[in-house]
Write a structure and sequence with these properties.
The chain is α/β, with parallel strands linked by helices. Among the domains are: 117 residues, Rossmann fold (3-Layer(aba) Sandwich); 76 residues, Alpha-L RNA-binding motif (Alpha-Beta Plaits). Helices cover 34% and strands 29% of the residues. It is globular and about 70 Å long. Bound molecules: adenosine-5'-diphosphate.
């Protein structure tokens, strides 16, 4: 049976001042999915997640976690859910391992199993050497990993992460991505919010976009990416190019002697540009998107 890990039905939230943060959203996340929740600031993502995690009171609608109604069977629903908020909200004076054991205790997990789980996740997240260190002495990256370990210590079937890699360096981001991919492969359903399209592209198979309290798109990541029209990339080159330099079959513009702008249509791969440049004896030293693709995507969707 393909059970939904999360089912949201006609969910509404009106804040006290009359602001409609969610205007009746419907969302299904199947078990095993890696799901991205995208949306500009103020779209309603945190409100939706807050309601699912019982941190925000809904105005109306229903939420089911692994088929358990959050209103009628809150404990069963909550046992299946792990949350990794963006802000560090553990007690910095507590030792790392105790943070995990105590958290498992809140979910009624017996001490021995809590200890075993804590050890398992601390090792997986490379925090074991810090197990007996008060959390406030950890580096920023370690604190983030501790938040993830804490979200998993009661072995939830659904893990929700609010911008898990906001502001972290590339190496730490890769580590987090690999870890999340692994637990998803092992069966944990994951929902994350992100501001990085690359993150959704790399990790997720499904995506919903929230805008002004409505879900305006709910599709596979592949389909979403395919709707992106032309991508423009800026390439920094190792050796100088002439001002009339062109690459066959691609639209290019020479910005200066070491910088080339390349347009890539939906059916073209930027990798091919690298191969062609290489055949001209050119190495690319760095590459970046000319524009923020996620912002472009939002703009396109909202315009329609
Ligand atoms: P996102 O997470 O996508 O940035 P939020 O869910 O935080 O969006 O916010 C959705 C809307 O609800 C915004 O207009 C925001 O200002 C408003 N909002 C969020 N929290 C509160 C609150 N506690 N009281 C009043 N308005 C709020």
């Amino acid at each position: 049976m393909n059970m939904n890990a999360l089912e949201i039905i006609n969910l509404k939230k009106v804040y006290r001042e009359g602001l409609e943060a969610l205007k009746g959203i419907n969302l299904s996340v199947k078990q095993g999915e890696f799901f991205a929740l995208l949306g500009p600031n103020g779209a309603g993502k945190s409100t939706a997640i807050g309601i699912v995690c019982s941190l925000v009171k809904k105005t109306s609608g229903q939420v089911f976690i692994l088929n358990h109604d959050l209103d009628k069977a809150p404990e069963k629903a909550k046992c299946n859910l792990g949350l990794v908020p963006q802000e560090f909200n553990f007690n910095g004076f507590e030792k790392v391992i105790n943070i995990l054991i105590n958290q498992a205790g809140f979910y009624g997990i017996p001490y021995d199993r809590a200890k075993k789980n804590a050890e398992y996740y601390l090792k997986k997240l490379e925090l074991w050497p810090k197990a007996h260190t008060p959390a406030r002495f950890l580096s920023g990256g370690m604190k983030r990993r501790l938040m993830i370990a804490r979200g998993l210590v009661h072995e939830p079937k659904l893990l929700i992460l609010d911008e898990p890699t906001a502001g972290v360096d590339i190496e730490a981001r890769r580590f987090t991505w690999d870890f999340l991919k692994e637990i998803n492969r092992q069966g944990t359903t994951i929902i994350l919010t992100t501001h990085y399209l690359e993150e959704a592209e790399n990790l997720c198979n499904q995506v919903a976009i929230i805008h002004l309290g409505n879900i305006i798109k709910n599709t596979s990541v592949k389909e979403l990416i395919a709707t992106l029209p032309t991508q423009s990339y800026i390439l920094d080159l190792k050796t100088a190019i002439p001002f009339d330099f062109v690459i066959p079959e691609f639209h290019t513009r020479v910005i200066d002697s070491h910088t080339l702008e390349v347009d890539c249509l939906a059916n073209q791969a930027i990798g091919d540009v690298f191969i062609i440049l290489k055949s001209f004896g050119q190495d690319v030293t760095s590459l970046r998107n000319k524009t923020n693709r996620l912002e472009e995507l939002f703009l396109n969707l909202v315009k329609k």
